[in-house]
Amino acid sequence: MEETISLKELLQTLRKRLALILAITLTAVIISGVVSFFFLTPIYQASTQLLVNQKKDDQVMLNTNELQTNLQLINTYNVIIKSPAILDIVAEQLGTGLTATQINGKITVGSEADSQVVNISVQDEDPKMAAEIANTIANVFSTEIVNIMNVDNVSILAKATVGEGQAPIKPQPLLNIAIALVVGLMAGVGLAFLLEYLDNTVKNEQDVEKLLELPILGVISVIEESKMEEAKARRHARKTKVRGETFGS
Q: Rg (Cα) of the chain, in Å, rounded?
């Protein structure tokens, strides 16, 4: 006999396990909020931009071949920026005790498609340090690339700055809480249906019918003790009244 589950049964399961679902969801939200606000260290980001463009004294416009060459060089520059040849000098100039490997883990280098602009982003717990690292990398690279590749086609387009009241890029507590809300709700609903599926106890006549695959002929109602006492009291009152009327006549 194939079993089917109606929408009504699904809603009844959700209503039955509503307390469990809310408890799991609320727990997930509280844990996410506490961890985001009190345990995760805020990380700030500062960015600088480099322009890859061959300097021309006697030409105003770059021809197509020179532009394509500059675009191809960007991928090479992205690698060089994160190389020890640049970061060792950056670490020395910063004088903060950071190694080239540690600085490498803080920076991200990239560029837009078909763009001659290289973006250097630095993440650090201190926004001022992030900006200082980014600017130092830009300065060192624009200077050292002349010796490394014997070219002079890099200029600093924009320096990294620290904004007043700059907000960290991570963690994002509200986003984390929203994700925890959705995950907690899904986990609660899933657990509710799992418990209902594993619950094989017989609760009503419909369960008996499904289990035995036989039609229900009759149901014995459950009478609560309080109602039985009320019924006894009414019968006793009627008997007392009848006796009184008999003796009175």
A: 38
d(CA 193, CA 183): 16
CA–CA dist 237, 109 (Å, integer): 93
> Tens digit of pLDDT for each residue in 52-68?
875 554 444 555 666 66
Assigned domain for 19 exists? no
In terms of pTM, does the model score above 0.85? no
pLDDT, tens digit (0-9, with 9 covering 90-100), for 105-135: 999 998 877 778 899 999 999 999 999 999 9
CA-wise closest residue to 40 among 177, 147, 151, 132 = 177
pLDDT given at position 75: 83
CA pair distance 159, 151, nearest whole angstrom: 22
The answer to whether residue 35 sits within a structural domain is no
Looking up tokens 């630095």 gives 122
In a domain, 36, yes or no: no
**CATH code for position 140:** 3.30.70.1130
Query: Domain span at residue 236?
Result: 205-241
3 state SS for 55-113: CCCCCCCCCHHHHHHHHHHHHHHHHHHCCHHHHHHHHHHHCCCCCHHHHHHHEEEEECC
